[in-house]
């Protein structure tokens, strides 16, 4: 069992290289295909935001600026895709090939960026995006969250320092609290869990979560041939997100599996939450599902 079609959503930013490296690393496991996608904004969508009474000359100037910026992003993304494709030893293909070889394709789609990303993500086994910064996430963060919440598919978020040579999915940590989101994340990560060298379940004990639930997950994983260690740290007032990342580092993990947005996104934006903390601060790839 492997991810055969992987979507890598590109923004033309510096993080694209790491995201593509992770996508091709997973594709190599089973002769998979990586689709590098650049969702391009329609310049006309910028016009309504300007309000009434704006001169035609200003509208045209803004549309030209949007088109130029989009063109620059597309160019950088395409160059990065071509470079990583070559480094991975993959070949270009627009449709499935008979041989179990690693292939890739690059595509640009104009439209609402979130909608474009979600539509394509629903037709992939896994989506991959670069980690976004808390202060500069912008449209990339909106696409990331749209894929997580609306695609019904798993999402791998990759930090910019990721190095495929260091491995991905050999030492996995699962953040488990028994929620629906956690169950989805584990189910979507099974192709990696069943081939991992080590799997560690982290069930943080809080006033709302029983740490002993981690043993039940370990028993379930055993039916899939996965031997998992269980840790039950106490939150004791500490940030659960920070605690999970600390546990992942202590386990020398190269992947964290996490259920995304167990609380509402608005609540996490206002009050903070595990998903947001991990998204912004993780130094290892994170596989999320909602």
UniProtKB/TrEMBL annotation:
> What sequence ranges are listed for the domain UspA?
170-289
* InterPro entries on file: Universal_stress_UspA, UspA
One short Pfam name that applies is Usp
Which residue positions does the secretion signal occupy? Answer: none
PANTHER family attached to this UniProt entry: STRESS RESPONSE PROTEIN NHAX (PTHR46268), UNIVERSAL STRESS PROTEIN HP_0031 (PTHR46268:SF15)
Family the entry assigns: Belongs to the universal stress protein A family.
Protein name per the record: Nucleotide-binding universal stress UspA family protein
Record organism = Nitrospirillum amazonense
């Amino acid at each position: 069992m492997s991810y055969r079609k992987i979507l890598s959503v590109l923004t033309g930013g510096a993080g694209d290289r790491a995201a593509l490296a992770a996508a091709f690393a997973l594709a190599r496991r089973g002769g998979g295909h990586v689709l590098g996608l650049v969702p391009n904004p329609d310049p006309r969508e910028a016009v309504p935001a300007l309000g009434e009474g704006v001169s035609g000359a200003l509208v045209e100037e803004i549309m030209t600026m949007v088109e130029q910026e989009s063109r620059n992003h597309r160019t950088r993304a395409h160059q990065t895709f071509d470079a990583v494709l070559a480094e991975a030893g993959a070949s270009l293909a627009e449709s499935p090939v008979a041989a179990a070889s690693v292939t890739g394709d690059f595509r640009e789609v104009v439209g609402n960026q979130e909608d474009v990303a979600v539509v394509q993500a629903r037709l992939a086994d896994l989506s991959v995006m670069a980690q976004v910064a808390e202060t500069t996430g912008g449209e990339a963060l909106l696409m990331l969250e749209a894929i997580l919440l609306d695609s019904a598919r798993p999402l791998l978020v990759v930090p910019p320092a990721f190095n495929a040579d260091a491995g991905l999915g050999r030492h996995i940590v699962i953040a488990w609290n028994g929620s629906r989101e956690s169950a989805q994340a584990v189910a979507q990560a099974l192709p990696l869990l069943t081939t991992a060298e080590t799997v560690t379940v982290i069930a943080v004990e809080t006033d709302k979560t029983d740490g002993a639930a981690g043993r039940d997950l370990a028993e379930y994983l055993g039916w899939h041939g996965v031997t998992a260690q269980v840790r039950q740290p106490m939150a004791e007032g500490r940030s659960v997100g920070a605690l999970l990342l600390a546990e992942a580092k202590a386990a020398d993990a190269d992947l964290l599996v996490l259920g995304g947005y167990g609380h509402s996104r608005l609540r996490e934006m206002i009050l903070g939450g595990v998903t947001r903390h991990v998204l912004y601060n993780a130094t290892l790839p994170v596989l999320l599902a909602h």
